[in-house]
Amino acid sequence: MRTIIIGYGMAGSRLAGELARRGHDVTVFGAEPHAAYNRILLSGLLAGTAAESTIMLPEPPDTVDIRLGVEVTSIDRAARTVNGVPYDALILATGAEPITPPIEGISGVPVFRTLDDCRRIVKDAEGVQSAVVVGGGLLGVEAARGLAERGLAVSIVHGAPHLMERQLDGPGGEVLAATLARLGITVHFGQTAARTPWGLLLSDGLAVPADLVVMACGVKPSTTLAKRAGLAVGRGVLVDDTLRTSDPAIFAIGDCAEHRGVTAGLLGPAWAQADVIAGLLSGLPASYQGSRPVTRLKAGQIDLAAMGVAEGDEVLTFTDPARGTYARIVIERDRLAGAILIGDNPSAGQVIQLYDRGAPVPSDRRSLLLGRASGAVTAESPVLMPDSAVVCRCNGVTKGEIVRCGARDVAGIAAATRATTGCGSCVDAVAGLARSVT
Amino acid sequence: MKPSTPTLAGMAPTHCPYCALQCAMTLHRDGAGVRAEAGPGGLCQKGWRAPELLGHPGRLRSPLVRDRDGHLRPAGWEEALDRVAAAVERTQATHGRDAVALFGGGGLTNEKAYMLGKFARVALRTSTIDYNGRFCMSSAAAAGIRAFGIDRGLPFPLTDLATAGTVLLMGGNVAETMPPLLRHLAPRNLIVADPRLTATAKLAALHLQTTPGTDLALANGLLHIVLAEGLADAEYIEAHTTGFEAVRASVAAYYPARVEQLTGVPIADLFATARLLAEGETSYILSARGAEQHAKGTDTVTALINLALALGLPGVRGGYGCVTGQGNGQGGREHGQKADQLPGYRKIDDPDARRHVAGVWGVSPDSLPGPGPSAYELLDSLGVSTKALLVFGSNPVVSAPRAAHVESRIRSLDFLAVADLVLSETADLADVVLPTAQWAEEDGTMTNLEGRVIRRRALTQPPEGVRTDLDVLSGLAARFGHTTGFSTSPREVFAELRRASAGGVADYSGISYERIEAEGGIFWPCPSEDHPGTPRLFGGGVFGTPDGRARFTAVEHRPAAEEPCADYPLYLTTGRVLGQYQSGAQTRRITPGEGFVELHPDLAARLGIVEGEFVEVTSRRGSAVAQARLSPDIRPDTVFMPFHWPGAARANSATNDALDPVSRMPEFKICAVRVSAAQGSVAAA
Questions:
Q1: What is the pLDDT of residues B605-625, one digit of tens each?
Q2: pTM of the predicted protein model
Q3: Does residue B470 share a domain with residue B350?
Q4: Which CATH class is domain A115-217?
Q5: Does A412 touch chain B (CB under 8 A)?
Q6: From B131's CA, which of A97, A245, B391, B479 has a CA 20 to 30 Å away?
Q7: Contact between residue A37 and residue A55 where contact means Cβ atoms under 8 Å apart
Q8: What ipTM does this complex have?
Q9: Class of domain A2-96+220-281
Q10: What does the buried/exposed string (b/e) look like for B57-86 if buried means 16 or more CB atoms within 10 Å of the residue's CB?
Q11: ∠A52-A53-A59 over CA atoms, to 5°?
């Protein structure tokens, strides 16, 4: 089967690899001139903590025909060809493109989206003192964090009432803003009116001076090619549970696809979709039932997870503003329906898995907020233990046996009971008991 | 029969008979009994109580043969050995040489393991030989060879761990399995990855409570962070390794959020672990069965080694090591009882190796059989292509995966002989049972988890009616016309082992009983009598590969062979408890104990199960029944069973026989089960 993939981002490259490993004849067209990279790690590049080499994704096997720097502008659906290459199955993985709000003087301002964008911003940031990021969504926060880590004075201008309003509630947004403030990032809530030579002018008249302006106003599915080819398009390219578009020979995955009204815009669902297509094209009865996307940001001092809905049967919250910690857990019928976790939340791994797997939540709800008690266990004072408590696990020696053995020092107790002769970790407890009974 | 060295008057410095830590102990005659005294490294209750088995009423004191009426009855040695020889001859004449199988054990001394392999290849000329160590260290061994060109559990002395900046222990519960090892681990810098908050994890500074079957993703995720945060040792990678680029590219896909979702380990803990490993002056990454006993165990260990290499650890500032489990799990895999090996860790399909070993044995290289099936494949072939089986120091009815199936295969044999100390569950099925000596009654060598060859010394002679395994093999070999070459003297056998291993990877040729005693053990390789041995195998970052560089290999996470589903919604994982050793054949006779099912109180509440109630754990392969033990220390989607008990409580009735493609390790550590109150059970008061 001849397969063409249009788009060589994280979804397209994953699918190319999976198909090639299954022996398919695969051609990939990529608009960007370089190999596939992990977009999630771009903020590390901006921060200067990650090298470009660490974000490059694995190359598919050599059998894949990869044509980079080629912007596909049309699909011949009747002949089933793309740029003259014939296909039996065509997969659109064209991704998403930045939204550019209508702001005066904004053209030419770099957008935080691609590797090339990132390179340009890094270059522009050299020798400047301050930057302003337009947009306080996920990308804007990442860009601001990266630039701040470079040592720039950074501000964010955000048009909504709080940061990351698609993922966070108001209190969560406030905790995030406070966390950013500690990193030296100022947030201005308001609409940007114009770009000026000295920075930005907001619609309420506030002037935000900055040497460098970066756009991060969100993205929308790239559907131009699909529209031009006459495929059904909503917000994204419409696909069914087999990820087929309105043309059964054409599929769409990743940020460009709209499945059951959802354009996920996250990597997890995109890879899940790539795996479904790899199965389907290999004759397996695969289907995509939707994903439970989790927004996750861990960059420098920022640790944030958001998923699902904000309201439900039960809502648990925890706020520790002084330490930048916030948690909101939403439970519906004993299952996790949503969560917002900001800062030090040791339960993050557990909460994300419960949401992802639809597993029942713990009966002790506190563990969802506080995580499990783990780490070094503080030794209970041996004097307060009951006689039946085992002091030396290795040899199963109880406090009672130690107290009654007649010996009054560790060596004597060891000789009499074998306590302390295994791993040795009960030596302090036994010494304490020896003291307490003399 | 005489012991090979004169018994010291009333005392014998030796080592514990159980795990690979091989704690030093001194045995004393104490009236009619024997008393143990701990060495400076301590002893756990298994070691302290080991002498109780010497005079135990449950130990075998006479061969047993199965009568026509189906009962085992005492018999003399001549009759018993004659029956074994006749059955072997009959089987080989009818079904071919390979239809007779040998199954060895990781508890056998080097001398016995060596002789068992020689017996198979020279006396029986069967290729069908493997051992239960396949179920223990084989994944780590395969990964070690892939990366370093050589496999020695710990390529450094255990005492090096005591000064480590950071130790990451993946899937090991040493506080239960080998407690005295904790004397070498400092809790302040210990990180433990385990699905359960085990006794070991409770001692750690950081516990990574992984989802079962995700250790590979965890390791790749840690390497991702190491690279993304600039914590890798670029100079080391450049100077001491090959293959890094492919690994770098593959771990780019293991970004923290994905790994967090797969493993359940919070990103913050992933970062903390990566930093601690990178920043410690020395750091060690250790794996044990929890990470290794999977159908992807070899790749999981490879991922851990990749991490260690990228951090510049092996041979320079720490390293990777496997915590070997069985007493002689290390030596047992070096001298020829493994399906594809000849003594000295040589490959049986290597013409040079065949020539060398055949020369020592005085046979033609062409007469040596080729590689045979791996342990599980061997057991699965019983009654089909393999018609007779001789077992030495192993109890597969309890310890093999998918044990009900294995038991039925064993029952379908034409002939089974078992050499053991006690009437184990496997011996109970045998046509001939051969009672063998215990550790306090024999001389020999063991190779502990560090690769240090140590002495086992006899305090007493075996009781009347009991022989050593070397005697058994010698007696059988004689019946096949080999009246020489099968010595009953451990010292003579060791001398021959030295020659057979000379020039091999595990070269023992410079090691002698005298040197071991004088020098407190010798680390292999030791190629000549003036060679000091090799405590640190990769000193200076030089490895056992042809170019001396360690090899990175890119490995990918994949699901377990069997993931939970609607019918079998929970993970089962298995492991060990402090009082028991392996199948429990020895330790259960001292401390009977009983099996249990550990589950989270939330899961128990959902299933309507209370503490102490008998519950049934059922997989696609079988069920086990044991009492419920409720604990918040386990994930609510996972149940745990120790595997030491037979019968209804046999955890391995449920475990999965999916095999690792490289090591042929079965997937003991994860399968899908459902759990319910056992039929007709009554909650314990």
A1: 999 999 999 999 999 999 999
A2: 0.92
A3: yes
A4: alpha beta
A5: no
A6: B479
A7: yes
A8: 0.86
A9: alpha beta
A10: eebbebbbbbeeeeebeebebeebbbbbbe
A11: 120
